[in-house]
Input
Amino acid sequence: MTRPTSPTAYRTLDPAGIRAFLAAQPALAARLGGRPDEWRVREVSDGNLNNVFLIHGPAGGVCFKQSLPHVRVDPDWKMPLDRTAFEAAYLRAVRPHVGALTTELLHFDPDLFALVIECLDAHVVLRQGLMQGGDWPEAAAAIGRFVARATFRTSPLALKFEDASTLLAPFARNHTLTRITVDLVLTDPYHAHPRNHWLSPELDTTVAAFRADPNVRRRVGQMQARFLTCQQALLHGDLHTGSVMVAAHDTRVIDGEFALPGPIGFDCGLFVGNLLMHLFATPTPQGRTRALRDIGQFWTHFRQDFTTQWTDAVARDQAGDAYAAPLFRDDPASLHQVQARFLDEVETDTIAFAALEIIRRITGYAHIADFDVITDRAARAARQQAALHLARDLLAEPARIPTIAALLALAADRAG
Amino acid sequence: MTRPTSPTAYRTLDPAGIRAFLAAQPALAARLGGRPDEWRVREVSDGNLNNVFLIHGPAGGVCFKQSLPHVRVDPDWKMPLDRTAFEAAYLRAVRPHVGALTTELLHFDPDLFALVIECLDAHVVLRQGLMQGGDWPEAAAAIGRFVARATFRTSPLALKFEDASTLLAPFARNHTLTRITVDLVLTDPYHAHPRNHWLSPELDTTVAAFRADPNVRRRVGQMQARFLTCQQALLHGDLHTGSVMVAAHDTRVIDGEFALPGPIGFDCGLFVGNLLMHLFATPTPQGRTRALRDIGQFWTHFRQDFTTQWTDAVARDQAGDAYAAPLFRDDPASLHQVQARFLDEVETDTIAFAALEIIRRITGYAHIADFDVITDRAARAARQQAALHLARDLLAEPARIPTIAALLALAADRAG
Output
C-alpha cells in the first residue's frame, strides 16, 4: 500500500504527540474545536494489534489509530506497520457503497501509519454489548447490508474485470495480516502448535476427536484453498462482533485492516460464527433467542440486498463482466436462477467458515471474551464443547446442514 | 509488466533492423555464428497479434517476436505493446518447472517489446500438422504434463500464499489480452455482436438456438465468473493447438502472452476444445481415432502428473498453504480424496471451457483453420453444426457429461 515517504519518520505517538499531530491538521483541529490543551486524549486500545485513542474537544471528537512495529499484546511478535494503510484503503474502497454503515476516513498519515476516523461516542462494541445482555435488533440486518454492498460493488459482478482487478490488486499484498488468518484461523487449530490453547483437560478429548476426523481435515483443506484462490470480492477479512459498533439505530463496521480479495462467505462466516458462539455463551433464553434471530436477520438481509443490487445493475446495464448483462438482461428467470445458485454457494462457504471461526476462537491462539461470562469452569467447558461439536458437524457433514435455516434449527436444538 | 525505459525507443523492426538488433547482443550473435550479413531473416508471422521472424546463421537459429502497436491482422485495432513482456514473464515463471516442454527465453528487450527465443527448426505447429494428417502420439501426453507442472507449481497447493500472490500479481495486470478472452471467448458469441460471423445461413438456426437456450446462458455466466474469480494458478491463457509445436519426440508450448491467474480447467479446456474441433473436422477415421486418443492421453497424463507432484510435495513437506501439509501428511487416504475432488472440479471446468472454445471458434471473431480442409461448404457446415451441438450439450446438460470419459464416448458417437 502507501509507502512511507521517509521510513525514519515513524514514531509511536503518546498522548502529547497525538495532540500535536492533530493540531497540525487544520481540518481535524477545527473538528475538535478550541485549543489543543483543551482536548481530552483517552486510550481505548482493545484489539490485539494497534494503539487506539479517542480525542475530544469542545466541538467534537475523533478516533486516532496507529500501527505499532509489533503485536500490541505481544511486543516480541514483530510486525510491519502497513496495516493501517490497508485499513485506510479499505475505507476508501467501500465507504462510497456502504455510507454510514462504516466510519468516515478523516485523515491518513503514511509516515506515522496513523489513521484518523470519526469518533463513535454513542456506540458500544457489539461483542461487549451482547455480553452485557444488550439488544440491538437492527444491527444484524445492517451488517448483512454492509457485506452485501461492500462485496457486490467490489466484485466483477458489478465491475468491468479491469476495474475489479485494479481495485483488488493492492489488497492482495496484505500479506502480513493474511498470514495471521491462514495460520491462526485455517491451519494451526488442526495440528499441534504451541500457540494453541483451550480449557484443558476438559476439552482435550473433543479437540483430539475433531483433529483425528478425516472428514473435518478434508473440509478444512478445501476451505484453505477456497480462501486463497476464490477472489470474488474485496473482503473486510475480520468481521467478528468486535469489529462492529452499535448504537440504538446506528451500526458501524470498523477495523478493516485485514482487508483482502477473497470468497464472500468468509466475511459472512466470521460474523455468523461469532453470533453462534454468543448463542452458546449467553446465559439467558432471551439472549439465545436474540442470537438466533440475529443470525437469521443477517443472512436474510445479506441475501436480499445482494440480489437486489445485482438485479438493479443488470437492469441498468451497469453489470460487470461476470454474468454479463447481455446474457441476462432479457431473461429475469435465468438471472434469478444464477443469483440463487451464486448465493447458495456463498451460503455453503459461510457455514464452513463459521465452523472454522468457532474452532479457532475456542482452541486456537486468540480466544473471544463471550464465554468469560460463564464463571463456573465446568459449565464454561460444557458450553464450549457444545459449540465445538456443532462446528465439527458443520465441517464433517456439510450435506446434513446445507443452509443457514438448517444451521439455525440445529444450533437452537444444541444450545438449548 | 516491464515498462519501457524510454517510450520513444520503440520502433517496429524490419529484417535489417532485426539483424542489427541481434548483432548488438553478443550471446545471440554467437548463437547464430558468422557475420550478420550471412544471417537469413525470414518472416513467419502466423498468429493474429505479433510479428515473428526466424533468423539463421552458420551456427544456429533464433526466433524473434515483436509486439506491434495494433493487432497484426487489423491495424485499426490499436493495442498496447506489453504483450511480449507478459510472454517473457510467463517463460521465466514456468520454464523452471516444465523444462523442454516450452522454449528457452534468450533475450527480452523492454524498449522494443522484442522477445528472442530458441528456434524450433525441426518442429511444426500442431494444428497445421494435424490438418495435414500427421500423427504425434507423444504430444498430447506432453501437453498434459506441461499443464500439470506449470499450474501446480504456481498455485498455493505448492507455494506459500505470499509467494503465489507475488508470482501471480503482475499477470493479473495483463488486462489487454484478458479483455480479448473475456469478450471474444466468454461473451460475444452469446449475443449479437458485429465481430461474430459463421457459415450463414447454414448455421443460423443452430446459433439462434444455443443463444436462446437459458441453460446455455446460465452456464456461460457461471464460467465467466469462474474465469474471473477462481485464481488457482498461473495459466498459459491461450493453449490451443496453434500454441503447440511438435517434432517426433519433442513437444513445446509457445505463445504465453495471454498468461493470467485463473482456473486450471481453462488451459485444459482450450486444448481439449481444439482437439474436439479437429475430431469433427478431420476427414479420416484414423484422424478421428487419433483425436479421441489425444484427448484421453492429455487428460490422463495431466491428472496423473498433477497428482504425483502434489503427493510428492506433501511427502517432502514442501506443500503450500492450501491443503496444508500438517493436515494430510499422515493420512494418504484423505490426501487422495481431496486430490480426486480437486481434479474432478478441474475436469468439470475443462468440459465447460472446451465447449466455450468450440462455440467461439465457429461462431465468434477468430475462427480456426481445421475446418478449411473440408472444401465442400455443405459438408463443412454439417461438421461445424455437429461440433456446435456437442458444445451446446456440454453447457446445457453438464450432469449428463460429467467426465472426460463420458465426453469421449459422446464425441466419438457424434463425430462418427
Chain B touches chain A through 45 residues (CB under 8 Å).
